[in-house]
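Section 5: illustrative case.
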């Protein structure tokens, strides 16, 4: 049973670490791949109206690698529960690109089509080819659904109440700017990509606006780096929480595994003291005896660690998927792999070898004649606390625990 406990502690340690770690790594990898595939904007500027001159000034900055403008507005629909659909009227679709799931990609020449949030469409039983009516600012648009898909700006869609997005009440839609009923369409949002950090790019754009005399933009517009956007901020916080969870579980199990290994090996060696003495007396050297006892911890933790990584990587991430899908929208939910899984397994195996050696080293160093004799009991020394007045005020159980700790210093150092 003690050997099973060593195996289980190693197995559970890597099962938890590799399982949760695979989920976290997969989430981060899938998010980064989605951002890269759709060329997610590095920053947004939200204001009242950005004319072509402003766009050109942003584009002419050396630190700007791309810029697009949109008109973004919330609209009401004629569907049950009066859901809100956030509309994006596009001039281009190269930054924070719409990700098609069903139907075609956005056609910027299409005046009558809309490309709708796939999860909103699913909640409302809408399909490609259906018509939808949208109203905003006294304007009503009747559009045909050309496609369903996702957007990197809506990995997390902030609900009006609570934390879980309810797609029966909210969604988004992408349209060509030609679908707007008036040629005088305002552009209230800029999407920017850059090679600089968020703060460096903010300072650079602020300097440009001041030099060009865009005081109205400085006073009324908001600069939002990607990491401060609601969607990215929420999912990055989620990833950080899962990382903490992935680290805390293994620490607890590693300490327990080492403690079990140390106490188990110490008992085994103590019970086999006479056999060890006999083997030494008939000519066995210390090296094969040490290797024999080290193999207990080595093989048990190695097998447990390898199985823990394999099973954890292929099972635990999928336990999180349904819950994560209720909060976030990504096209892929594959688990990831991190070399830290291997490093923790190696640490556990090396630690098991070390603690096995600690357990067997003292008896191996003794002479054959001494080893053949029963081990004399340790003489308990009076500890520091026993010479103080505090000792007399302690209860029996606490005194027992203190003396038990003093008798086994190795176990105390692990605990």
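Designed sequence:
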């Amino acid at each position: 049973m003690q050997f099973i406990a060593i195996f289980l502690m190693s197995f559970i340690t890597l099962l938890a670490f590799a399982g949760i770690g695979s989920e976290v790594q997969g989430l981060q990898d899938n998010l980064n791949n989605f951002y890269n595939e759709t060329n997610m904007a590095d920053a947004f500027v939200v204001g009242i109206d950005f004319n072509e001159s402003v766009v050109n000034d942003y584009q002419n900055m050396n630190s700007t690698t791309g810029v697009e403008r949109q008109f973004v507005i919330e609209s009401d629909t004629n569907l049950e529960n009066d859901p809100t659909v956030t509309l994006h009227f596009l001039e281009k679709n190269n930054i924070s690109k719409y990700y098609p799931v069903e139907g075609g990609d956005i056609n910027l020449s299409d005046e009558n089509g809309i490309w709708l949030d796939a999860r909103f469409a699913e909640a409302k039983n809408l399909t490609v080819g259906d018509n939808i009516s949208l109203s905003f600012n006294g304007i009503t648009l009747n559009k045909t659904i050309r496609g369903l898909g996702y957007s990197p700006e809506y990995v997390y869609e902030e609900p009006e109440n609570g934390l879980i997005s309810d797609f029966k009440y909210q969604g988004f839609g992408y349209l060509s700017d030609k679908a707007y009923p008036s040629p005088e369409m305002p552009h209230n949002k800029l999407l920017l990509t850059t090679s600089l950090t968020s703060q460096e790019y903010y300072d650079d754009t602020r300097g440009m606006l001041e030099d060009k005399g865009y005081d109205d933009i400085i006073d009324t517009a908001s600069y939002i780096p990607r990491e401060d956007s609601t969607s990215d901020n929420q999912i990055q916080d989620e990833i950080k929480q899962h990382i903490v969870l992935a680290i805390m579980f293994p620490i607890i199990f590693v300490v327990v595994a080492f403690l079990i290994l140390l106490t188990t090996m110490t008992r085994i060696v103590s019970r086999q003291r006479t056999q060890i003495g006999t083997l030494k007396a008939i000519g066995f050297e210390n090296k094969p005896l040490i290797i024999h006892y080290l193999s207990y911890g080595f093989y048990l933790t190695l097998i447990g660690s390898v199985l823990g990584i394999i099973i954890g990587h292929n099972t635990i991430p999928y336990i999180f998927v349904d819950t994560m899908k209720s909060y976030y929208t990504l096209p892929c939910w594959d688990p990831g792999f991190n070399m830290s899984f291997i490093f923790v397994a190696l640490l556990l195996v090396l630690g098991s070898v070390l603690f096995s050696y600690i357990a067997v080293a003292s008896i191996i160093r003794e002479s054959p004649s001494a080893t053949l004799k029963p081990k004399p009991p340790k003489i308990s020394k009076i500890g520091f606390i026993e010479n103080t007045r505090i000792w007399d005020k302690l209860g029996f159980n606490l005194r027992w625990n203190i003396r038990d700790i003093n008798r086994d210093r190795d176990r105390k150092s692990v605990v």
